């Protein structure tokens, strides 16, 4: 164990940081709408099965790789797998992926921040007009918001693992839980809220198609921060006393519970605040839902609690999503930071400057790819349509590479690092893992059907997205 590697101060610190990474824009906003539109309770069931039977073993494998090697993805794959071109490449993908996901995640976080500030400044009525979104993202304000958000992320990461990442999670996560519960209680007591709950949970098995199943697994993978090197990196910040098996279960339960609870907030709000809205108008994209649909819903609350009241509820919602986005963004950017610190012997400060100069520029390109600069707006064309710079990063790194990275982790721990060593690592922390049903299941699943499923998703996504 490397003596000078900084570690989380406690197991709870690690769990909160990992849950902070997991709980993000994906599950707070994307999940509820996906679930409601694609079979309600039936989707929830499939999603929960995927989280626990497929994602959880991958999560444990990533954490175990990080803790055993005490390194980020590139270091972990080479340290545990020896010199091999294939596995160094897998490690490299584990660093490039979060670097690129960080670019589009940053853009959305910047918009969230902009909306939050505008709502607090009394502009909810302006934002409720869906055309305001296009105006805002093409205005100079986004650059100001970008500087502030990049500043916040830098401030947290510069302070390090314990005083930065862990401390931020310890403050932001409990605040997020409190706001979420307060909003859910408020929403559920409004008239007609139960219609939204029904829309969200009543199972409709006939809506479950192969593409819904595929979407549920991708959603679960993204939501749990898998395939992005994050949990390898966070795993390298814990010591042998931390029980990975138990901690991973808690992270998965927290993430799923937050996603479910978010559904109990968003759908009833749609039904109750603005009864004129037809729920089938709900968009599949989290982005248009947050920025063009929900402000209109919140504004309708002014009839019952006044404009200031409606702005407070909307502000609380945007603050909640912003907190979730910041703890996720921090975890995404920490992977390349950790790579530069561990492999290239940069200081944290120098790593952050290097990232600001590289990822920062790509983020600028992505920011102006919504109409401001034609070159980035119509960057390339595939699948018969022009795509912006933002779209390209999203399609490649969110949709396509994540299952590939997950597949590489499964093959690596089962066939290169070997099951016995994985089991020994997962048995640390006093959990009677060796010989348990969990051990048998995890070894079997990671070496057989999980990689097959992930390969299927990867190939299917390539075919559907790019051809
Ligand atoms: N898991 C997070 C989310 O759901 C990030 C890290 C991708 O938004």
UniProtKB/TrEMBL annotation:
It is found in: Membrane. It comes from the Bacteria. SUPFAM superfamilies: SNF-like (SSF161070). Pfam families: SNF (PF00209). It is a multi-pass membrane protein. InterPro entries: Na/ntran_symport (IPR000175), SNS_sf (IPR037272), YocR/YhdH-like (IPR047218). Its main location: membrane. This is Sodium-dependent transporter. It comes from Thalassotalea loyana. Keywords: Membrane, Transmembrane, Transmembrane helix, Transport. The chain crosses the membrane at residues 12-31, 43-65, 86-119, 139-159, 171-189, 220-238, 250-271, 305-332, 352-376, 396-415, 441-464.
């Amino acid at each position: 164990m490397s003596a000078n590697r900084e570690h989380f101060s406690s197991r709870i610190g690690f769990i909160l940081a990992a849950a902070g990474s997991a709980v993000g824009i994906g599950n707070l906003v994307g999940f509820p709408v996906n679930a409601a539109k694609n079979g309600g309770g039936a989707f929830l069931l499939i999603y929960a099965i995927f989280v626990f039977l497929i994602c959880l073993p991958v999560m444990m494998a990533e954490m175990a790789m990080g803790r055993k090697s005490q390194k980020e993805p590139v270091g972990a794959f080479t340290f545990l797998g020896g010199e091999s071109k294939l596995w160094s490449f897998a490690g490299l993908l584990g660093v490039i992926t979060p670097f690129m996901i960080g670019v589009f995640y940053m853009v959305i976080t910047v918009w969230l921040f902009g909306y939050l500030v505008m709502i607090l400044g009394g502009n909810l009525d302006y934002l409720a007009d869906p055309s305001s979104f296009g105006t805002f993202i093409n205005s100079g304000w986004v650059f100001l918001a970008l500087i502030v958000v990049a500043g916040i992320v830098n401030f947290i990461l510069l302070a390090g693992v314990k005083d930065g990442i862990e401390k931020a999670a310890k403050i932001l996560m409990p605040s997020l839980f409190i706001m979420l519960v307060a909003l859910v209680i408020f929403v559920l007591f409004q008239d007609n809220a139960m219609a939204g709950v029904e829309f969200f949970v009543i199972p409709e098995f006939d809506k479950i198609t192969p593409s819904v199943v595929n979407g549920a697994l991708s959603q679960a993978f993204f939501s749990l921060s898998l395939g992005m090197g994050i949990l390898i990196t966070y795993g390298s910040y814990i010591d042998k006393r931390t029980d990975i098996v138990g901690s991973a279960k808690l992270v998965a339960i927290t993430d799923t519970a937050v996603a479910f609870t978010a559904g109990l907030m968003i759908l009833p709000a749609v039904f109750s605040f603005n009864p004129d809205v037809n729920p089938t108008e709900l968009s599949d994209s989290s982005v248009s839902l947050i920025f063009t649909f929900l402000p209109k819903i919140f504004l309708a609350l002014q009839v019952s609690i006044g404009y200031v009241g409606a702005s407070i509820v909307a502000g609380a919602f945007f603050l909640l999503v912003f907190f979730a986005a910041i703890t996720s963004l921090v975890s995404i950017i920490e992977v390349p930071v950790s790579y530069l610190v561990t492999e290239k012997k940069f200081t944290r400060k120098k790593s952050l400057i290097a990232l600001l100069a590289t990822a920062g520029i790509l983020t600028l390109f992505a920011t102006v790819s919504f109409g401001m600069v034609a070159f980035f707006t119509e960057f390339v064309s595939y699948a018969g349509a022009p795509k912006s710079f933002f779209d390209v990063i999203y399609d490649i790194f969110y949709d396509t590479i994540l299952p590939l990275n997950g597949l590489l982790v499964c093959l690596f721990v089962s066939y290169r690092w070997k099951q016995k060593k994985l089991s020994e690592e997962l048995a640390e922390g006093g959990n009677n893992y060796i010989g348990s049903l969990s051990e048998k299941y995890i070894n079997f699943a990671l070496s057989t059907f999980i990689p097959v499923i992930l390969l299927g998703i990867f190939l299917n996504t390539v075919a559907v997205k790019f051809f």
